Structure formats: C-alpha cells, structure tokens
Amino acid sequence: MTAAELLALIAAALLLQLMVGLGWMVWRQRSGAAMAPPPTAGAATAAKARAAWAGWREFRVERREFEDAAQTQCSFYLQPADGQPLPAFKPGQFLTFGLDVGVPAADGSVAKRAITRCYSLSDRPDPAHYRVTIKRVPPPVDHPGFAPGLSSNHFHDHVQAGDILRVKAPGGHFFIDEDPNLPAVLIAGGIGITPMMCMLRWCIAQQPQRTVHLYYGMRNGHEHAFKTQLEAFALSHPALRLNIVYSRPGEADLQGRDYQHRGHVDGELLRRTLPHGRHAFLVCGPPAMMQTLVPALAAWGVPPGDIHFEAFGPASVKLPGGEEAAAPSASGFEVSFQRSGRTLAWDGRDASLLDFAERHGVEVESGCRSGGCGSCQTRLLEGSVQYAQAPDHDVAAGHCLLCVGRPSSALVLEA
Q1: In CATH, what number does 328-413 get?
Q2: Per-residue pLDDT reduced to its tens digit, 62-92
Q3: pLDDT tens digits, one per residue of 160-175
Q4: Domain residues of the chain, as ranges?
Q5: Cα 196 to chain center, whole Å?
Q6: Distance CA 172, CA 372 (A)
Q7: Second CATH level (architecture) for the domain 184-325
Q8: pTM for the whole thing?
Q9: 293-322: pLDDT as tens digits
Q10: Based on the number of CB atoms within 10 Å of its own CB, is 319 exposed (0-12), middle (13-18) or buried (19 or more)?
C-alpha cells in the first residue's frame, strides 16, 4: 500500500467516524424532544397572563358593591369578556376606561359624549378579575350650580352588573417597592385609599411579614371606605399599623374604636407616630393634601427616592430634587389654544401644559395625569414640547401629551 493510499484510508475512516457522531447527536435530540412532556396548560396560561394587551379590551361587570356607609364609593368587579386570564400588574397602577356618557343639553335633550377616564385598581392582582373603586363626585360645595363629575356619576347611576366596558391594560408609574425589608408607609386621603388597598392586599398576600403603616384620612365614619376589611386586616396581621384620621368626627364616631387620630394626616402626625429608620412613603390624596404633605416629607429629610406619590384632581406637586425641580424653567413662550381661541404666556410656574391650561380655564380632556393613558393627547400644530421622562403612552406623530409636557418653544395647540 502506497503512502497516498494509506492517507486516503485514514481520511475516509475519520470522515465515517464524524458522520456516525453527527447522526448519533441528531437521533438523541429528536428522541429527547419526542420524549419530553408537552407544556402544561398551567404554564401556557401563566405565559399568556404575563402578556398585557394592546388597545381596548372588553370587560363585563361581574358585580358592584358599596364600600362606605354613605354609599358614595362603589367597587366594580370586572371580568374579561373573552374569558382569557388577566396579566398581573404592579400594585398601585390604574385602568383606563373608554366611556360613552350622556351629557344634558340646554334644550333638555341628552347627547352622547366619548370620554376617557383612569381609575386605580383597588385589589391585588388576580388572573380572574380586576377591581376599581369609584367615588361619586358631586358639584363643588362653593359652586352648587356646577355639573357633577361626569364619569363617576355615570358609573354610579348607569353601570350595572352584566354591562360591557372598554378597558386598556394596567399602567402608571405609581406602585409599591417590592423590597420586603423596607417598611412601607401608605398615606391616603379620601378616595386616595384605592391604590393603597391594592398595595396593602398585595403585601398581606405576598409579604405578610413586611411592616406596613397605613395612614388614612377622611372627614368622618360616614365616608370611611373599607372599614370592616381594614379592621380585620389589623387584627389578623400584626405587621400592619393602622392609623385612621377623622377631621370632623360624627356624633357616633368613637376615638380608639373607629379612628385613632383627630385632624389631618400631616408631617407632625408622621413624625410623632412613625419609628425611626428608613421607610418607603407612598402618598395619594386630594390637592390640598398633596401640595402640603409631599414637600413636608422632603423637608423632614426623606430622600426623594423614598417618596412616591399620585395626585387626583389638578394638583401640582413640587418635590425638591425631583424631576419637576430639574425641568427647564424657560418662560416667555406664547401658547395658543386654537379651538379655545386663547393665547397665553407660559411663565414656567406650572408643572405641565395641562396644569397651565386648567389654571387659565382652558377645558382639556385628561385622565391619568401621568403620561399613561393618552386622554390629553393634543395635536401639535406648531412648536415643540419636551418631557422630563418618556411617557408610557405612545404619542402619535404630530401630537403631544399635555399632562407631562412643557413647551420648549412657542406653541400652537389644537385644543
């Protein structure tokens, strides 16, 4: 055998060995795939539940329940009409609703109007249902001739079990820190209790040993939502410290039984009742509470990263060292609202174009006030708008979000 023949024989043997090895690997992979169990229904369901939906989804109202003695705060339990599981959400987030409501006209007729509104989820994540709790908003006490809250009264008067509602997926930047070693201080004023109930129920279910201080302020026991539930939680969960505060107790309200403190939830009360150490503060309430309490926490020395808040109503909260304080304070721009026929001078005082419009009496549709729902999206005809942080909502080309936007030049808005 020549050297060339020997070399060819060795090469052929090596090639055959390589082919046998590759064949063996392919056979193992195919047989392993055939022997592997198929994904379980539970795994498929969990994967589907983790994916939030885009756009609107139909929900059926399963039931409704009043949460206070005055029957001004009503919970609506919502189930997906398609029967598919619901994605989890971060405790504290909200749902966005697309509603067709009746608006009385001057001639006595009722016209339909499409509106968008956001309401905080008031229960912990559940793959079977969501819950929101909505307070009926009457006309202002000092302006009884003004119209009551359009959306809240629609829910209370017209939305019943079996009705179908259009809902967007949970959103928002206001949610609880998941560190179980960091005590949470949940501070609610009035209907601001709704995201706190969501956070509290989540903590009890997922982090039962976590210390939670709940401060809940209202006028009296007639407006005390979730009273029985909160008292039961306090009895069964030693890690919960309940602080109920009435500003105007009724004759039947007994301190020590129905409430712990008289007055308001303020910095003095927190300093007097909270133990020393680091806490995560989460605050949600009406404008007066937000505009005083949040800056008071910062003045107390609470780091900005430990203060989280969400206002309902037109409240501008300025937190020293926060994003709003860092936003450019350019002024002197003219802002024209084309539909309203108003041209105003931006002076840099307002946190957003929405606050600016409301301060000057320009009527603008709004919802979440945090860049999540798109209710205030307005066509930008001229100029440019800047955001302290990118909004959650995908802003359409040629439009801007008034609730989180500030002008960086003169503007012409369609509103």
Answers
A1: 3.10.20.30
A2: 999 999 999 999 999 999 999 999 999 999 9
A3: 999 999 999 998 889 9
A4: 52-171, 184-325, 328-413
A5: 11
A6: 6
A7: 3-Layer(aba) Sandwich (3.40)
A8: 0.78
A9: 999 999 999 999 999 998 765 555 666 654
A10: middle
